[in-house]
Amino acid sequence: MTRLIADVSVSLDGFVTGPDPSPDNGLGTGGEALHTWAFSDDPDDRRILREGTARSGVVVLGRHLFEAVGGPKGWDDTSGYGAGEVGKPAFVVVTSSPPESVRTTNLDWTFVTTVLPDAVTAARERAVAASSDSGKDLDVVLMGGGATVCSALEAGLVDALTLHLAPIVLGAGTPLFTGQAPRTLVQRRVISTSTVTHLTYDVFR
């Protein structure tokens, strides 16, 4: 069964970027520390990274995050989602208008210009097709940014939430949760490594 899994790294004080994020500085000041685990040699970190990319049939992201990863200091052939792991999934971007050009033409980009639920529906359809082609269950992974994850939770689109809780206090930046209605999640997995605590929750709609 194809699920929508929101998967994001977050600071102890709830930020998914540091202060002043921009296309040239997508994680903001000090935000690189949120993703130390993704470059770690810790075997549990490596395993969790492989599991995450292996389950990804399609990845959904918002326009601000696309501008960061697709910008001049963003992803290339050696960095980015799935690089050096099991492969590169398709990407669906929810945006008010498609960009005039895309630098990372080696990746499969689809731009949905209506609303987030439409982008999720398109991603689910592609993930189901990818599952059929590969013979294994693949999920839709929502990687951000923070506002997109928050909106998906509010809209009841998310099946599971995976947080990589970094041992850092950023003090400011892009918050993950803003104005959320009270919600109780069901904790499914906690793995602590030398760099981060990986938390997985089921989200009931």
Blueprint (SSEs and pairs):
Elements: E1 4-11, H1 43-54, E2 56-62, H2 63-69, E3 90-94, E4 109-112, H3 116-134, E5 139-144, H4 146-154, E6 160-166, E7 186-192, E8 197-202
Parallel strand pairs: 1-5, 1-6, 2-3, 2-5, 3-4
Antiparallel strand pairs: 6-8, 7-8
Describe the structure.
The chain has 4 helices and 8 strands, in the order βαβαββαβαβββ. It has helices at 43-54, 63-69, 116-134, 146-154; strands at 4-11, 56-62, 90-94, 109-112, 139-144, 160-166, 186-192, 197-202. The mean pLDDT is 89.
Short description:
The protein is of the alpha/beta class. It is 23% helix and 24% strand. The protein has helices spanning 43-54, 63-69, 116-134, 146-154; strands at 4-11, 56-62, 90-94, 109-112, 139-144, 160-166, 186-192, 197-202.
Largest sheet: 8 strands, mixed
Q: Write the element-wise H/E pattern from the N-terminal end onward.
A: EHEHEEHEHEEE
Number of helices: 4
Q: What is the CA-CA span between the terminal residues? A: 16 Å
Range of helix content: 10-25%
Query: Could you give the order of strands across the largest sheet?
Result: 4-3-2-5-1-6-8-7
Residue fraction in strands: 15-25%
Radius of gyration, rounded?
16 Å
SS class = alpha/beta
Stretches where pLDDT is under 50 for at least 5 consecutive residues are: none
* Mean pLDDT across all amino acids: 89
Task: Report the count of strand segments.
Answer: 8
Shape: globular
